[in-house]
Every structure is written in structure tokens, then in C-alpha cells.
Amino acid sequence: MANVSLKNVTKVFDNKVIAVRCLSLEIRDREFFVLVGPSGCGKSTILRLIAGLDEPTEGDIYIDDILVNDLSPRDRDVAMVFQNYALYPHMKVYDNLSFSLRLRRHPKSLIDNKVKEAAGILGIEGLLPRKPSELSGGESQRVAVGRAIVRAPKVFLFDEPLSNLDAKLRVQMRAEIQKLHRELGTTMIYVTHDQIEAMTMGERIVVLNEGEVQQIDTPLNLYYSPANVFVAGFIGNPPMNFIRGSITSDNGYVFVSNNTKIPLSSDFDEQLAEYRAKEVVLGVRPEDIYGEGTERGLSSSQLLSKDPIEVTVDFLELMGNESLIYTKTEGTPLIMRAPADVSCERGQTINVYLDLAKLHWFDGITGKRIEKQ
Ligand SMILES: Nc1ncnc2c1ncn2[C@@H]1O[C@H](COP(=O)(O)OP(=O)(O)O)[C@@H](O)[C@H]1O
Ligand SMILES: [Mg+2]
Q1: How many domains, the chain?
Q2: Is the pTM of this model over 0.85?
Q3: Which of 18, 137, 190, 198 has the most CB atoms less than 10 A away?
Q4: 318 C-alpha vs ligand 1 centroid, how far in Å?
Q5: Could you tell me which CDD domains the record lists for this protein (predicted)?
């Protein structure tokens, strides 16, 4: 069991590719911590730095409050599970599981106990005599996790371990890994590019882009209070809609974007005071847009924008339980959630209204969230 901390860690490859930039993270003992971000944002590099497979160009890494910069991977007491499983193809599952313990010259009976215990936890006792070529994707994945479990590491590192599985198995394995976390009570650091996987698994999540931290927070805080336009657009599916415009005052504040005008209630006066006549980005999630002919239950406390935004329906996705309406207004795409039995059609023009209490505001230049005062 251990906490992991990175202090101002930078990794530069070949003197030019900055994979990780001045990264500081404090991962708590027993935490399930997720690193999420688009491909190439530095996730694998961060795991490899923690595991000791790569050296930081600058900065310090601590495991269990011990500086590990100069410790070899095997002395760091961490175990990594890779996306491609990296099983030894010529060895039976039993030998794949026992390999690291044999290297460390543990007694045979102890090795046998540990292998059987790990196999028991994962329900793969029946696979022990098989070769990796005789396993399905899901089974290989379990064996790869089993190989980490037998080592009883202080920290588990998972690098996109579910990416090669089909959708159904992925959901099942998510639950299994979380159960494993509860049972073992070990710190787990989990990398994924999939925001849904991050949201459903992480106790806390760091969102990364181009090697830099965008926000470190709980899943719901990321969703409801994204720190910038990047996080707002990355977390949530379908993504948040953005409309670029400016704030003018005309008998109260008004958001203006081309011909669209959204008069704002006085609730926004303080929040937007500094942004009068400046560029802002208005963010609104698909579930916070309400359209004529697509009414969903509105509670009496909800305050919708008074003036409609006129949008043209591009296409519809009817999913059975709900529908997604893809629209455009003056060239800006707006996606909205609607009931299953939505009545609008392609090419139709409809009026939509925004839930004023749910609007997100971002600085038009820096992209940073404009906080409520
Ligand atoms: N060994 C390496 N040599 C040079 N560049 C690398 C190396 N490993 C990773 N990179 C670069 O560092 C960046 C981050 O890569 P990576 O950590 O693999 O991203 P992710 O896992 O988030 O997809 C990418 O631009 C990648 O091309
Ligand atoms: Mg990667």
C-alpha cells in the first residue's frame, strides 16, 4: 500500500518531443486514480516513469514517500498491466503467472500458493494449463492482471488494459477491476483515452492534454465544473456545445453571437461583470437545451432563456430510450437530447431554449472557466 507523488516531472524525448510537462500529482494510498486524455497526451509515458521504465528529464517521483528516481523497476514494487497483455507466448498460464516469483527465487510451495490464490480471485483456475494462444481476449486480459496480482505490489499501473476487448466484455471487466480494487485495497493508477471508462471507474481523475494537467477532480466535478474548454469538451458524450460570442449590456447582460441574442438574468451580473464587450465561449450540454416539439419534463424551478435560438435539424439519432438531435445555428453545431418519440425532421427549423442555470462560461481567449462569484 502506498501513495504516489510526482513533483514537477518533465519528460522530453530526443531533446525535442515534450511528452510530459511540469506534472505534479498526489495519488493517495488505496486510491483508484485515472489518467485520461486523447492519444499522445503522455499517459503511457507517465505510467512508465512511475514504473521506472523511463527516467524523468526533470522532477522527482515518490512512492510511499520514498524518492524512487534512482530505483530500478524491480525495486519499486509496482506492477504494470499493458494494453497488449504482453504474455509470454511459449509459457503456460501457470508459468506466466509464476514467472516474476521464480525470478525472485521464491520457494516453490509459496509460488504455487500465490499463483492459485491469484487464479482464484480472477476465476481462471481452469486456464492454468493453457498456452496464451488458447485464450480469448478476455481470458488473456485476466491472466495479465493475475500476473500483476501474484507480485502483491504496492501500486498497480494499468495502461489501457481493456482497449482490445469488445464493448460488452469491457463493461464487465471494468466492474471486475473495481471489485479487485475493493478486495485488494491497493493503490491503482489507471490510464485510458475513454472518458466513459474514466468517469465510471475513477475516484479522482486527471485530465491531460499535450502533456499538461487540465484538471484533477472527482468525476462529477469534472462534468459540472470543467476548468476549461478542453475538459468541458472532453468529458461528456455527446460533448458540450460551444457558442463563441460576446457579452453586451442592454438593459441587463445579453450574450450575442452573430444574429443570436440571449438575454441573461441578473444572476449573471457578477459572474460576467469583467467580460462586458469581451469575447466569451458559452458552453451548454445537450441535456440542457429544450426545443419546441421536443419537450421533456421541465420542473417549475427551471429558468429557460426567453428568446429562442433558431436551429436547423441536420440529422437525428433515434436510440430507443432517447433521441439526439444534431442541429446547426448560423454554422455552429448544437446537439440536443430529446425524448425517444421526438417529432422533428431533417431540414426543419425549430426554436430551442437554453436552461439558464446550467450554462457554462469560458474566457474567449484563455478558454478558462469563468467562475461564479
Ligand atoms: N520512446 C519515445 N521516443 C520518442 N517519442 C516518444 C516516445 N514515447 C512516446 N513518445 C511521444 O511522447 C508523446 C506521448 O506519448 P504517450 O505517452 O505514448 O501518449 P499516450 O499514452 O497518452 O497516447 C507522443 O507525442 C509520443 O509520440
Ligand atoms: Mg498510451
Answers
A1: 2
A2: yes
A3: 190
A4: 38
A5: ABC_MalK_N (cd03301)
